[in-house]
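Priority: medium. Attachment 1 of 2:
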């Protein structure tokens, strides 16, 4: 089986310090969390950033500070900024981090209910984001919150707006989108185009079961505070690295080897040098 790529979604846009006091927010905290997660086994850092008040922002200066701090601390993992940002942001706001020319960035593949809100990703927005990434040779991670989202990505591929290699992230358990279950995970994986690689992320209490099933199925795993703030029922996670370490232990138990950042770049066909 292919080596396991672990993504650490270290901060997110929705989680607050009062939900988990160990949530990293500033550039230095994000860099420290990224380095710890990488040392634990993560090869991708999915990145959201916050302003001085801890509010989600997509401004380049905050991404740049986090990128610089990560580089300075010696992070070698793929840094994957979000272009999803937070619900309610305009497309112009959301797309800003591509200007930093990262190796990867997320591309959300459809409008979904997101709790009580609506996360808008219509096809015209998706085309714009895909074209911006294709122009800069940034590998999009195709975020799918529901089965139909996969077909939107396939549509973009038909329109030649995506690279040869497709990489999906199947996010299961966002309230209002596809609930997390093993059956739904299998269903989504079966819909993926031939040759695509995929990561799965379970929200909340589903983070661990989705990770375990994904390890066995040959997919890649995303964990971290963006999706889940608990280590176990009622026990807050101490760090993103703690959540990554558990995935590494479980993978080791079933002889699934962990991909280094370099190996992850190979698996994902990323050959863009680090800027
Ligand atoms: N914060 C969510 C509304 C992404 O990073 O591309 C969207 C999100 C997806 O987190
Ligand atoms: Zn995100």
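Attachment 2 of 2:
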């Amino acid at each position: 089986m292919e080596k396991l790529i672990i993504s650490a979604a270290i901060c997110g846009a929705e989680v607050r310090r009062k939900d988990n006091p160990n949530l990293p927010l500033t550039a230095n905290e994000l860099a420290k969390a990224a380095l710890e997660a990488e040392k634990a086994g993560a090869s991708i850092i999915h990145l959201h950033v916050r302003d001085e008040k801890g509010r989600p922002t997509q401004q380049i200066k905050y991404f740049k500070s986090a990128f610089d701090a990560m580089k300075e601390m010696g992070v070698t993992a793929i840094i994957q900024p979000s272009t999803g940002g937070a619900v309610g942001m305009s497309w112009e706001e959301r797309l800003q981090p591509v200007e930093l020319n990262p190796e990867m960035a997320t591309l959300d593949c459809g409008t979904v209910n997101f709790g009580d809100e609506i996360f808008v990703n219509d096809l015209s927005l998706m085309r714009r984001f895909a074209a911006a990434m294709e122009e800069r040779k940034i590998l999009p991670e195709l975020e799918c919150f529901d089965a139909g989202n996969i077909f939107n990505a396939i549509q973009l591929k038909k329109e030649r707006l995506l690279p040869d290699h497709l990489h999906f992230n199947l996010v299961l358990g966002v309230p209002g989108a596809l609930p997390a279950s093993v059956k739904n995970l299998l269903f989504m994986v079966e819909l993926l185009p031939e040759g695509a690689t995929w990561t799965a992320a379970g929200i909340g209490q589903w983070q661990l079961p989705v990770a375990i099933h994904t390890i066995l199925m040959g997919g890649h795993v995303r964990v971290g505070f963006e999706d889940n703030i608990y280590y176990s029922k009622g026990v807050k996670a101490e760090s993103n690295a703690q959540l990554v370490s558990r995935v590494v232990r479980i993978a080791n138990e079933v002889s699934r080897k962990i991909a280094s950042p370099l190996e992850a770049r190979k698996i994902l066909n990323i050959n863009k040098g680090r800027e």
